[in-house]
Write a structure and sequence with these properties.
There is one protein chain. By secondary structure, the protein is of the alpha+beta class. Among the domains are: 61-149, no CATH class; 192-200 and 397-551, no CATH class; 303-377, no CATH class. Helices cover 54% and strands 7% of the residues. It contains 19 helices and 7 strands. A hairpin with a 5-residue loop joins β1 and β2. α6 (179-192) packs parallel to α18. The longest helix has 45 residues, at 2-46.
Length: 551
């Protein structure tokens, strides 16, 4: 009797193991089908990239800015993009490389030059990839741009994105989710997450999100006790720092990840995680120095520079009506030499003027406070003759939304809304509550899954709050684009949180709700199929309905 009972138990265990193995195979097969279809669709999309005029494979001023750096590094070995900007199409005579995402400042040769306003680290890496393409195929981006550009995007966008999809799928498989939950999560990751929207254009959001995914995978491995290896601490440091190099607010994730790892293992955090932050930081500031001659990135130069002199103005002289010749004696007396040909131009900042010396190509800032003339080093690299970034030239959303409440509403639930465009993220909101409920405690020192969730919540609030609190000129939804793109790097963190909600979906009614949220998210993701640098469908719907006042 005992032997019969034991044999029955063994058979039941074997049957359970076989059933579990079949479920694993089903999950893998479903994930592979979703991933393969996503890869094929994005490959076809990339192979048909072309501008609206059909001359180049660049889709907006944003990605052209990075392409300019790649091209000038390959052609000139320099970060100065003056010559690239003037390249014209042989048939249309249009400047097909021109971009508004520019800065202008004095270069190492003492002359004024244009540079991309984008941090140079990522384009420098991509220039290396282009160099390999050029050496292997002989194709030049200057003479036949479509083939090498599309091939480069396959290497730097599609292959990393496919790795991202695989990593999320591998990560999810560890939780032995129900078939429905696993399928829905994979379908969302590949088809519903708006990172996919930007797969056919150069951008910083995709590499940042992939780096965040890698770092989160490392952290959860350690937090859930799956591994104690120092390698995860090292990889996490490299990944979080690379994310921050591409998305400034991701510094909050660097800090949050450090706090988590400090609680898990203080010694390894200090000896492995912290030093691993340094290589990417060195590369970020090093490439910035190579490009601009200083460590501060271009976006840090948007106002007056350092005060270098001040002097009393004659009572009958106002800066608003003064000529450079009238100011020359005052400047000379303060050891500031300017030529007779110098001119004064009203700057984009109120009350600020540019003193331009064409002989030395030095720009200085002038400002009057009472009867005192203040002279500054020129610090606003976005302000130059013909700049788009002036109040009289900016158009549409680039002008900024003056109503803060309206801006916040549109960023969260409006035409660029995180939750209106991707309602799947409502499951992530619920996920924070689910994790807290499952933890059964508020002691995150003991419950590390709760610790990770709280770190993600804090990171999300800080980073989204950073953008919602920006000054007027930055309240522009990230310019003309199909999403609130500044929050896309948080996607892998929110996917992990949403997992905990979807895993609890059991009945048909809640499954239908999840499917509806997934379908709406997919619609937002694929709507701008040809070009992500277009307005979201929600904004286009408001315009079509004659509700421009709501925008």
């Amino acid at each position: 009797m005992a032997n019969t009972f034991s044999e029955t138990q063994q058979k039941l265990k074997a049957a359970d193991a076989e059933r579990d193995q079949r479920k694993i195979q089903v999950r893998k097969s479903i994930a592979l089908v979703i991933l393969a279809t996503g890869f094929a669709a994005q490959l076809a999309r990339i192979l048909t990239i072309e501008s609206s005029t059909g001359e180049v494979p660049f889709l907006s001023a944003n990605d052209r800015s990075r392409w300019c750096t790649i091209a000038t590094l390959a052609v000139e070995g320099s970060y100065e993009i003056d010559k690239i900007l003037e390249v014209r199409d042989a048939k249309s005579n249009r400047r097909v490389w021109y971009t508004i995402d520019l800065v202008r400042h004095r270069g190492s040769d003492g002359k004024q030059h244009y540079y991309s306003s984008k941090p140079p680290l990522l384009p420098t890496i991509y220039a290396g990839v282009y160099w390999l393409i050029r050496q292997t195929t002989g194709a030049s981006i200057m003479t036949e741009p479509f083939f090498p550009a599309r091939l480069l995007i396959i290497f730097v966008n599609l292959l990393p994105l496919t790795f991202f999809w695989w990593l999320i799928g591998h990560w999810m498989s560890r939780y032995k989710l129900p078939i429905f939950a696993h399928t829905a999560l994979m379908a969302f990751t590949v088809w519903g997450c708006q990172l996919t929207t930007f797969a056919n254009t150069l951008n910083n959001h995709l590499p940042a999100a992939i780096a965040v995914a890698v770092s989160a995978f490392c952290i959860v491995n350690l937090a859930e006790g799956r591994s104690k290896s120092s390698g995860w601490f090292l990889l996490c440091g490299l990944a979080t720092s690379f994310a921050a190099a591409n998305e400034l607010p991701a510094l909050s994730w660097v800090a949050a990840a450090g706090a988590i790892l400090l609680i898990i293992n203080p010694l390894k955090c200090l000896l492995c995680y912290v030093p691993a932050l340094l290589p990417v930081a060195a590369a970020f500031f090093g490439t910035n120095y190579l490009a601009h001659g200083e460590f501060a990135p271009a976006y840090a130069h948007r106002d007056l520079g350092e005060l270098i002199a001040s002097a009393e103005l004659p009572e009958d002289l106002e800066l608003t009506s003064a000529a450079a010749a009238q100011l020359k004696p005052i400047l000379d007396s303060n050891s500031i030499e300017v030529s007779e040909n110098s001119t004064i131009r009203s700057a984009r900042r109120e009350g600020v003027f540019e003193l331009w010396d064409p002989e030395t190509e030095i720009r200085r800032g002038l400002k009057q406070t009472g009867n005192t003339l203040e002279v500054y080093q020129w610090g606003d690299w976005y302000d130059y003759e013909g700049s788009y970034w002036t109040s009289d030239r900016k158009q549409g959303v680039d002008k900024g939304e003056p109503n803060r409440a309206k801006y916040v509403a549109h960023c969260l639930v409006g035409h660029h809304g995180i939750f209106s465009l991707t309602p799947w993220w409502l499951l992530a909101l619920l996920g924070f509550g689910v994790i807290g409920y499952e933890a059964g405690t508020l002691n995150f020192f003991r419950h590390h899954t709760l610790l990770v969730a709280l770190a993600i919540l804090a990171t999300s609030v800080v980073s989204i709050g950073f953008y919602l609190a920006r000054p007027l000129e930055d309240c522009n939804y990230g310019g003309v684009n199909a999403a609130f793109r500044w929050g896309l790097w948080l996607s892998p963190l929110w996917i992990w949180v949403s997992l905990h909600t979807v895993a609890r979906v059991k009945n048909l009614t809640t499954q239908r709700v999840v499917i509806a949220l997934l379908a709406l998210s997919v619609f937002s993701t694929v709507f701008p199929w040809d070009n992500p640098w277009t307005s979201p469908w929600t904004m286009q719907l408001l315009e079509w309905s004659g509700l421009e006042s709501w925008i």
